[in-house]
Structures are given as C-alpha cells and as structure tokens.
C-alpha cells in the first residue's frame, strides 16, 4: 500500500486543520478519515477545518466521506468547517445530491477559523 | 413528358461531335472570351479588379471542364448536375463573386462558342443545325441552374448569418440577464428577471458562485421579483444554486416572492423551509445588515 496518500493534519490552538491538495482515491480517503478521527480523539480538538481550496474535482465517495466525518467528529465534540470549496466542485456536489446539509462552510481558512473561535467563545460563555 | 431542363440523345451526340473541334481551339477560345469580358460594361473595369481576377481563374477552369464535359454522356450529366453547380456557386460566393459578374461570365461562353461553331461547321449544315440546337439547350440549362443555385445559396448564407446573429444576441441577453452586484462589503444581490430555463439557471449558478468567490461574499440576496412564474423546475434550480452557494460558505436569502408566486409554490408543494425568505429587497438588505451587526439610521439624529 505504498501509493496511499497521507494528508497532513495540523493543530492550531484547540483546532485541527487539514488541507487536501491532491485528489484522494477511495483507500486514501478512508485512511484520511481514520487519521482525522484518531487525531481528534488524541488532541481532544474542538473544531476541524477541512480546506478544499486546491481541489478542482471531488468525487461522490469523498463527498459522502466528508459528510460522514462531520457527523462522526460531531459525536466527539468537534465542529467541522469546510473552507475554500471551488464553484465547480460545489455545483458537482449539489448535482450529486451531496449538499452536506449538516456541515458548516466558510469562504476561506481565515473565516473558518474565526467561526470556530466565535463558536467556542459562545459555548464557554454558556457554561458560566 | 420530357423534362424541360434536360438534353435529348440527339443533343448529346451533336455535342460529342463538337468536342474535338473545341478542344483543338481551346486556348484561342479562352483568349476570345477574356477579350470579350474585358470590354463588357457589366463588369468592373480593369483586370486588377478583385472580381476580374476571380472571373479569369473561374473561366480558365470552366473552359477546360466545359470541353471535357462535351465529350461524353457522363461528362455532360456531371457538368449540368445540380450538385456540381451548387458546389461551384458556393465556392464563388465564398470568394466574393457577385451575381451579375458570375452570370456575365457564364454567358460569355455562349458568346464565343456559338459563332465559332457556326463558322467551323459551315460546310456541314445538318450537324451545324443539331449542334446549335443542342448548344442552345445546353446554355439554357446551365444558366437556369446557376441562377437557381445562386439564389438558393444566397438564401442559405443569409439564413445562416441570421441564425448566428440570433445566437450571439441570445448569449448577450443571457449574460446581461443575471448580473451579480455587490451592494456592500461581502453582500451580493442577484436580481433575476424573466423566465429561467435550465441553460440560464446553470449560467446563473456559475455566475453567482464565481461572484461569491471573487468578492468573498458571505451573504447573497436572490431577488426573484422579476420572475413571473415559478414552477417546480425553476424552484429546483434556485434551491441548487442556494445549496451550492452555501457549500462555498455564503448564506443565501430569497426575496421578492409575490402573492401569486407564494400561492403557486405552496400548491406545487415546493419546500423552501431550509431557505430564509423576505418579502422584498429592502427587507432582505435590512436582515443581512442586522446579521452583520449593521443598520441604517438618519444622519442628523439628535
């Protein structure tokens, strides 16, 4: 399995950031999902940003997988934000019926980060 | 019933007999024809004229083809065939040959060949009569076909041009018809006017998404005041655009649904529950500004 592509997952404060740069084939995508969930569990991250700026094509498998990750991460207490989706990719996903209704989206990494910080601040304010 | 536009067997035989005679004098006849044309008042003066040059090359080819054609039945049939003439006319029109010049050019064949035959066959009156009769019919057929084909071809060209113009205009209208306007930092308005078909919906969605990306817009107000009828298909297109915009990270707001459209939508069972809607553009702008923590108030408030 040497052709497996591993996507680096970076930690910033209480959040994780992963930027997908190349098309992921099914096995790489599954590996990516497992890596993300393991990492969320290990770091106890409160948010996860998936940056798709570099992706020109997203297939239905990856589209569905992202929706799954969002749901699974939610169970582990992390909010998933997808950023930088390209117009053509958005149209394709909608046409495939993968509108990712449960996932938060943001225009770019910065806005995604701002959203997560705001949300965390709100949650923490709620506890007091 | 004999077809008016066809040669009889007798005609063909007479023409076959003329062919060798014409072939031996081909160059001479060509020169005569060109000399005749250089004096023709119908043509633009001077051999340097564009049409003059076209005509010279056309006639040179035509002359050889003509003599070749006379020799055999197949040759005649091909020479007077509609498809050959259509092809010839198409080439000439493309090269820019006018109708008058073409017809004069064709007529010039007759002008030199008929006197030539009359003179050459002076001592064979029977053949001369047959040949002249055959040639007259031949020329009648040729010019009739050229005329018909020219008109048909011109009509085709005009029709094609019109279709092209219509296509260009249609595209221009489509481009004009779904502008994406930034009304505030990060706020876009997409005013839709007129009927929306799949093609326009696709264009609209693309334009909207590109606009969102270019302006980094977080809010989009889609104004459908100008859409007279909203059916299931239009509603689906709108929903798709809204979903795709959300994937990019923009919030969409649908405004301008009038009473009639609202009724139709409910009757059709179109579900817009996931979409925020407001009565008109003003209400939409107010909503978006409020979400951004902004508002509009009088300047001189005391």
Spatial strand order of the main sheet of chain B: 1-2-3-4-5
Q: Which two protein chains have the largest interface (Cβ within 8 Å of the partner's Cβ), and how many residues from each? A: A-B, 20 and 19 residues
Count of individual domains of chain B: 2
Query: What is the domain tally of chain A?
Result: 1
The CATH architecture name of chain A reads 2-Layer Sandwich
- How many separate helices of chain A? 4
CATH superfamily of chain A, by name, is STAS domain
The SS-based structural class of chain B is: alpha/beta
Radius of gyration of chain A: 14 Å
Q: What string, H for helix and E for strand, traces the elements of chain B in order?
A: HHHHHHHEEHEHEHEH
CATH architecture label name of the largest domain in chain B? Orthogonal Bundle
Write the layout of secondary structure elements.
The complex is a heterodimer of chains A (128) and B (302).
Chain A: E1 9-12, E2 15-19, H1 26-43, E3 47-51, H2 60-75, E4 79-83, H3 87-95, E5 104-106, H4 109-127
Parallel strand pairs in A: 2-3, 3-4, 4-5
Antiparallel strand pairs in A: 1-2
Helix pairs in contact in A: 1-2
Chain B: H1 9-24, H2 26-39, H3 50-71, H4 73-79, H5 82-95, H6 99-120, H7 125-177, E1 181-184, E2 187-193, H8 198-215, E3 219-226, H9 232-248, E4 251-255, H10 259-268, E5 276-278, H11 281-291
Parallel strand pairs in B: 2-3, 3-4, 4-5
Antiparallel strand pairs in B: 1-2
Helix pairs in contact in B: 1-3, 1-7, 2-3, 2-6, 3-4, 3-6, 5-7, 6-7, 8-9
What does this structure look like?
The complex is a heterodimer of chains A (128) and B (302). Chain A has 128 residues and is of the alpha/beta class. Chain A has one domain (9-124): STAS domain (Transcription Regulator spoIIAA, 2-Layer Sandwich). Chain A is 48% helix and 17% strand. Chain A contains four helices and five strands. Chain A has helices at residues 26-43, 60-75, 87-95, 109-127; strands at 9-12, 15-19, 47-51, 79-83, 104-106. In chain A, strands 1-2-3-4-5 form a five-stranded mixed sheet, with helices on both faces. In chain A, helix 3 links the parallel strand 4 and strand 5 (104-106). The longest helix of chain A is centred in the last third of the chain and has 19 residues, at 109-127. Chain A is globular and about 45 Å long. The mean pLDDT of chain A is 90. With 302 residues, chain B is α/β, with parallel strands linked by helices. Chain B has two domains: 3-167, Orthogonal Bundle (Globin-like); 181-301, Transcription Regulator spoIIAA (2-Layer Sandwich). Chain B has eleven helices and five strands. Chain B has helices at 9-24, 26-39, 50-71, 73-79, 82-95, 99-120, 125-177, 198-215, 232-248, 259-268, 281-291, and strands at 181-184, 187-193, 219-226, 251-255, 276-278. In chain B, strands 1-2-3-4-5 form a five-stranded mixed sheet, sandwiched between helices. In chain B, helix 9 links the parallel strand 3 and strand 4. In chain B, helix 2 crosses helix 6 (99-120). The chains are: A alpha/beta (128), B alpha/beta (302). The A-B interface holds A 82-83, 85-87, 89-91, 93-95, 99-101, 105-108, 111-112 and B 205-206, 209-210, 212-213, 216-218, 240, 243-250, 274.
